[in-house]
Amino acid sequence: MTVGLTGSIGMGKSTVAAMFIEAGIPVFDSDAEVHALQGAGGRLVPAIAAAFPGSTRDGSVDRALLGPMVLGDPAALKRLEAIVHPAVGEERAAFLATNADAPIVVFDVPLLFETGGESRVDCVVVVSAPADVQRARVLSRPGMSVEKFEAIRAMQLPDAEKVARADFVVPTGGSHEETRRAVHAIIACLAAREPPSS
User: Which domains, and CATH codes, for the chain?
Assistant: First the structure.
């Protein structure tokens, strides 16, 4: 059973992913994979440096330099995605092979709906919090501004639309314990389902 885990910025998706891991469910963190591929010695660094001159520093992609080159520029974003997505796809295939015996695996993908990724999983879990909670969380991050927050949010499907398209929703506006209970209820529900025919 493959599960897509998604949610807009500041919704608590990393916290929920950690709760799945705590419960013994393997989680593929696509953002972490991208960081590794773009970090020091990462195999995508040369290609990104060539496509976006000035976006690297000390042998790795510097997100603070790359961000302004692609934010708000759909053509530049497509160029970047054409470099990154195939490599992440290879890492995903390797993760699936490693965890072939696991009854449930989770793919943590921030832009799942935006990239059509929901068609590659059996069900979708959306992490959601009230708008004021989301805003407060994001604006408390170092280096975050209202403008940057709004630019990121503009690239993401609205929360209400994600929730409407989800198979399961994990609310994160309350306590960690409430969130954990919601995660465990989803795992129990998935475990009781018939495995999809391959």
Answer: 1-26+105-198 (3.40.50.300), 40-98 (no CATH)
Measured at the CA of 143, the angle between CA 139 and CA 149, to 5 degrees, comes to 45
The 10 Å Cβ neighbour count of residue 195 is: 10
pTM of the model: 0.85
User: Tokens representing 118?
Assistant: 């929901």
Per the rule left: phi > 0, alpha: psi between -120 and 50, beta: everything else, 61 is beta
Residue with tokens 């009230």: 130
Alpha helices in the chain (DSSP H): 13-22, 30-38, 45-51, 63-70, 74-98, 131-139, 146-155, 159-165, 176-192
Tell me, what DSSP letter sits at residue 196?
Answer: P
Cβ atoms of 84 and 34 closer than 8 Å: yes
Quick: pLDDT tens for 100-131: 999 999 999 988 998 888 999 999 999 999 99
pLDDT tens digits, one per residue of 15-55 = 999 999 999 999 999 889 999 999 999 999 999 999 999 99
Q: In a 3-state reduction of DSSP, which class is residue 91?
A: helix
